[in-house]
Amino acid sequence: MKVVLVNGSRNEFGCIHQALSIIAEELKANGIDSQIIYVGSRACNGKINEAVDELGQAMQEADGLIVGSPVYYASPSGEVIAVLDRLFGKYGADMRFKPASAVASARRAGTTASLDVINKYFSFNNMPIVSASYWNNVHGSQASDVLLDLEGVQNLKVLARNMAWLLKCIEAGKEKDIKAPELEEKIKFNYVR
Ligand SMILES: Cc1cc2nc3c(=O)[nH]c(=O)nc-3n(C[C@H](O)[C@H](O)[C@H](O)COP(=O)(O)O)c2cc1C
């Protein structure tokens, strides 16, 4: 089983990369593979379609998704939002019912607002949101700062173990013929008519 880890920072090897690396290590210790996909600056240098397709194709095979974003002006990075808008439009069907979570990194503030924004993509798309024992934030200005945020690091490891546990439960369910719920045709209510 495999989890795709999205790095939405402009800084490819900064705090979010550090946070995702901690998650990757803990997933591995729990028998789950992972792959970090860098979308960051690709979203604003003319390579957004390439980044979205790489992610979407990876999600066709993967079992779970974790999106990591730095906080920019108390929101996820514009790069993450641009990629997720397109990813869910084009590849949403390949991601339904796959557990997902979000991680945010800030120097100081804006993480929970950023997590709320990212989690809304998952809840729109039938993706169980994996939680941990706090909100999934770490703090720092450079990668090494994240390692000093001991509470944040512990929470990332809890998140990875919870993700691994849920993936194994879903796999065990398949062996007992427990299928994902059938989808109904979506009712789209229009407020003006
Ligand atoms: C454009 C920009 C806006 C930022 N806005 C915030 C903010 O609103 N709150 C905050 O605490 N940090 C803010 N930061 C700092 C980053 O969120 C923080 O350093 C983060 O950990 C960087 O992660 P990275 O190394 O993966 O890019 C901002 C940084 C940039 C470049």
Mind sketching the topology for me?
Elements: E1 2-7, H1 15-29, E2 33-38, H2 48-61, E3 64-72, E4 75-76, H3 78-95, E5 100-106, H4 111-124, E6 137-139, H5 143-148, H6 150-175
Parallel strand pairs: 1-2, 1-3, 3-5, 5-6
Antiparallel strand pairs: 3-4
The protein binds flavin mononucleotide.
Structure description:
Helices cover 48% and strands 17% of the residues. It is globular and about 45 Å long. A hairpin with a 2-residue loop joins strand 3 and strand 4. The model has no long low-confidence stretch (mean pLDDT 97). The chain has one domain: 3-Layer(aba) Sandwich (Rossmann fold). It contains 6 helices and 6 strands. The N and C termini lie far apart (46 Å). The relative contact order is 0.18. The chain is α/β, with parallel strands linked by helices and 193 residues long. Strands 1, 2, 3, 4, 5 and 6 form a 6-stranded mixed β-sheet that branches. The structure holds flavin mononucleotide (FMN).
Short description:
The chain has 193 residues and is of the alpha/beta class. Helix content is 48%, strand content 17%.
**Helix coverage percent:** 40-55%
Reported for the largest beta sheet, the result is: 6 strands, mixed
Counted by DSSP, the helix tally is 6
- How does CATH name the architecture? 3-Layer(aba) Sandwich
Uncertain parts: none
Q: Give me the CATH superfamily.
A: Flavodoxin domain
Shape: globular
Structural domain count:
1
Instruction: Please report which band the strand proportion falls in: under 5%, 5-15%, 15-25%, 25-35%, 35-45% or over 45%.
Output: 15-25%
Average of pLDDT = 97
What's the CATH C level? Alpha Beta
Number of strands: 6
Give the terminus-to-terminus CA distance: 46 Å
What is the H-and-E element order? EHEHEEHEHEHH
**What class, by secondary structure content?**
alpha/beta
- Please compute the radius of gyration using only Cα atoms: 16 Å
CATH topology, which one?
Rossmann fold
* Small ligands present: flavin mononucleotide
